[in-house]
Design a protein that fits this description.
The chain is mostly beta strands. It has a single domain, classed as Porin (Beta Barrel). The protein has two helices and ten strands. Strands 1, 2, 3, 4, 5, 6, 7, 8, 9 and 10 form a ten-stranded antiparallel β-sheet that branches. It is elongated and about 65 Å long. The two termini are 24 Å apart. InterPro entries: Beta-barrel_OMP_2. This is Probable protein-translocating porin PorT.
């Protein structure tokens, strides 16, 4: 994820440098898709990567649950409604796949300590996009808003719990999101790389049937948090 973020930021820097050089040497860049941002409503799609984590709060101090993250992938659609010159309302429903491993302390057997959490999310974010003034073919922006997520792999209806190697979470969660990106106007389309942080507002964990469960009894709350890197095409 760090390498991907560096590549995105490098690409943005090179584009900005190129625009700056054109201005310094008196070369006016060709303005691509000059009237595109005047549209009231437009659509697009995105592909990207994610890294999901859990923010875990405990009832009492003790050894932490270790969370091993992996890089997942995203795909989705974008609808963008222009509210005024620099503010747009965006709806970006998408499918997000990720995997995490939880290593619970206090167990000697791996079958008891390790839980694989494979998650397939349908993500519904409603965001406000705050754009800066367009410079040549570049327009940076900030994003922020709220979202709700449906986990298709939550195991919420299972009567088995961790004692039967079944880790359960709530199917629906609520989040807030904040991030930034840049619109790069090419001759035929707009390419928009962005990076966004997602922070869960609701407790996701379903406790085990036993109130003294060694897996869940000491957990006060377990909330999603994630980083999304998306590449959007309009």
């Amino acid at each position: 994820m760090k390498k991907i973020a560096v590549i995105v930021l490098l690409a943005l820097s090179l584009e900005g440098y190129s625009q700056g050089q054109n201005r310094i040497f008196g070369k006016d860049p060709i303005i691509n898709l000059e009237n595109f941002q005047k549209q009231r409503l437009y659509f697009g799609f995105y592909l990207g990567f994610n890294s999901f984590d859990f923010k875990i709060d405990y009832k009492t101090d003790g050894p932490d649950i270790l969370v091993k993250k992996t890089t997942g992938f995203n795909v989705g659609l974008v609808s963008d409604l222009k509210l005024q010159e620099y503010i747009n309302l965006r709806f970006e429903p998408g499918l997000y796949y990720t995997k995490r491993e939880l290593n619970f302390p206090g167990f000697t057997r791996e079958i008891d300590a390790l839980r694989e959490v494979n998650s397939t999310y349908i993500h519904f974010p409603l965001l406000l996009k705050f754009s800066s003034l367009r410079t040549g073919n570049v327009r940076p922006y900030l994003l922020g808003g709220v979202s709700t997520t449906l986990n298709l792999s939550s195991n919420s209806k299972s009567k088995d719990d961790n004692s039967a190697q079944k880790f359960r979470v709530q199917p629906w969660t609520k989040n807030y999101e904040i991030g930034f990106g840049i619109d790069i106007f090419s001759e035929y389309f707009i390419f928009s790389p962005s990076i966004r942080g997602v922070f869960g507002l609701s407790d996701e964990l379903i406790r085990d049937n036993d109130p003294n469960s060694p897996w869940t009894s000491n957990i006060e709350s377990m909330k999603n948090r994630a980083v999304f890197i998306n590449f959007t095409f309009h």
